[in-house]
TrEMBL record:
Enzyme class: oxidoreductase
Family the entry assigns: Belongs to the 2-oxoadipate dioxygenase/decarboxylase family.
Protein name per UniProt: 2-oxoadipate dioxygenase/decarboxylase
One family name in Pfam for this protein: HGLS
């Protein structure tokens, strides 16, 4: 029997191989990422593995896909459910992007610490929002929904195998092989000709909308390796002549602890696609929809830590608006140095980030009773704090990556009121709960605190 985590690891590896064949620059990105990770490990030693072993980091991927209907999203959930992946977080990219990005998203990923350690594969999954009148008038919405209703993204055999794998938490060898073949094939770029006129109609609204609703299939949009030094990766990719987007999205590169997530990508490439013209002729064309993203993951922050992050982003935005030509990266580093604690211990003491705690091997042994607060236990050396890796996404960064790779801004009518989508709506569409990432991190942290309390005989006292 092939367990869910083994299915997940095999799916991630095969998807990576497939995407490398389709987008050769992705293979370059993976190679450069591996070289950077090896160099960082040699330079920093054990400290380089503070947020995960180099083996995990080098094997780690996140993917991104896009679907058009709640029904398609529910089918995606069944496929990823077979891999032990759950929907975590609600992201509204419509509000995070200045240009037209008419999607809401969630991320499918493992949620248990042991499962994440085995293989942390995650897939950022976006759903088109045809009901939002800011992007789609009534006529275009009706045409789009009719088109989407007439396609089948995932064969019934794949869905049946997925349901079995989720229910039984494993598949026999032959069925596992069949499931993996069908699942990877479902995300390959289809050779079917694209309806040129229909695609262009949607592209005038949004290139993202055209990529989702302008074709009769879905495909992997990007696959993202993890790197330990994203600034060095950016330099090396540019040195190889690969055109990168203008910025690294997310927090700045500064001297303090790495928080949340930093991302960048190479620009979307013109890929040959067969196009069907209005008279039925099939011609050679090209579309720019897929790109190569890379990420550096930091420490997961609490709601208070996230509020601080958002305030600092807003502060940098205001300063950039007041001073055109400002070096935004330098400004952000200065702002972070002024407002963000410079050590992990202080992050923990202020409740700004999540950690797991363990009793220190060299804790005091002089008969003193340990203090009853986590911060004081940490300060006095009774316990050690290990940071929890941020396993999720930042909507503004995701939207920034999307926007940087679009060929145009699209159109958005802000005089219309946007359609309401939220986590509860998405849970209903999925037929399963969208989990709260903060609750998942807090659960891991609280388990470790309970273990510390038992070991130090502080049950019922540790707060």
């Amino acid at each position: 029997m092939i367990s869910q985590w083994q299915l997940r690891a095999a799916f991630a590896a095969r998807l990576s191989d497939m995407y490398g064949r389709e987008v050769p620059a992705y293979t370059t990105l993976v190679d450069v990422s591996r070289q950077v990770n090896e160099d960082v490990l040699r330079a920093r030693g054990a400290d380089a593995e503070r947020l995960g072993s180099v083996g995990r980091v080098t094997a780690e991927r996140h993917g991104a896909i896009r679907v058009g209907t709640p029904g398609e999203l529910a089918q995606v959930a069944r496929i990823f459910g077979a891999l032990g992946m759950h929907p975590v977080g609600f992201y509204d990219l419509r509000e995070a992007a200045a240009s037209a990005v008419p999607v809401v998203s969630t991320a499918f990923r493992p949620v248990d610490g042991a499962e994440l350690a085995r293989n942390p594969f995650r897939v950022f999954t976006s759903l088109l929002t045809p009901a939002d009148p800011r992007f789609f008038d009534a006529d275009l919405r009706a045409r789009l929904e009719t088109f989407l209703a007439g396609r089948e993204l995932f064969p019934p055999e794949l869905l049946a195998l997925a349901d079995r794998a989720e229910a039984e938490r494993a598949l026999p060898d032959a069925d596992a092989e069949r499931f993996l073949h069908l699942a990877v094939s479902a995300f390959e770029l289809s050779p079917e000709p694209v309806d040129q006129a229909w695609y262009a109609t949607l592209e005038r609204v949004s290139a993202v909308a055209a990529d989702i609703g302008g074709v009769r299939s879905t495909h992997i949009n990007h696959l993202t390796p993890r790197v330990l030094d994203i600034d060095e990766l950016y330099r090396r990719m540019a040195d190889r002549g690969i055109e990168m987007i203008d910025t690294i999205q997310g927090p700045p590169n500064w001297q303090g602890p790495d928080l949340l997530l930093r991302q960048t990508s190479f620009r979307a490439l013109a890929e040959p696609r067969a196009m069907r013209t209005p008279d039925g002729t099939v011609t050679n064309g090209a579309l720019r929809v897929r790109f190569g993203e890379v990420e550096a993951r930091g420490i997961a922050v609490t709601p208070d830590g996230r509020a601080l992050y958002d305030r600092l982003l807003d502060l940098v935005d205001r300063q950039a608006a007041r001073h055109p030509g400002l070096d935004r990266a330098a400004c952000a580093r200065t702002v972070w140095a002024e407002h963000v604690p410079a050590t992990e211990q202080e992050l923990a003491a202020q409740g700004l980030a999540y950690f797991t705690y363990r009793v220190a091997a060299d804790r005091p042994r002089d008969g003193r009773r340990p203090p009853t607060g986590v911060a004081e236990l940490l300060r006095q050396g009774w316990i050690r704090a290990d940071p929890l890796v941020y396993e999720d996404f930042l909507p503004r960064s995701a939207a920034g990556i999307f926007q940087s790779n679009l060929s145009g801004e699209g159109s958005r009518n802000n005089e219309q009121e946007g359609a309401a989508y939220d986590s509860a709506w998405l849970s209903g569409a999925l037929g399963r709960d969208v989990l709260d990432p903060y609750a998942l991190y807090e659960r891991q942290q609280n388990r470790s605190i309970a273990h510390v309390a038992r070991e130090l005989a502080l049950d019922g006292e540790l707060g």
